[in-house]
Amino acid sequence: MEKLVVCPYKRPNALCRLICFPWAGGGTSQLAQWGKLFSNSIEVSSVRLAGRESRLKEPFAKDMTTIVNEITSVLLKELQEKPFAFFGHSFGSYISFAVALHLKEKYGLEPIHLFVSGAHAPQSEELLPIKSIPISDTEDEDILTYIQILGGTPSELLQNEDIKEHLLLTFREDVRVLQTFSFENAERNVPFSCDITCFNGSEDKPHDLEAWHDLTSGDTSFYKLPGGHFYLLEPSNEIFLIKHITRCIENAGL
Question: Catalytic residue at 113?
Answer without folding.
Answer: no
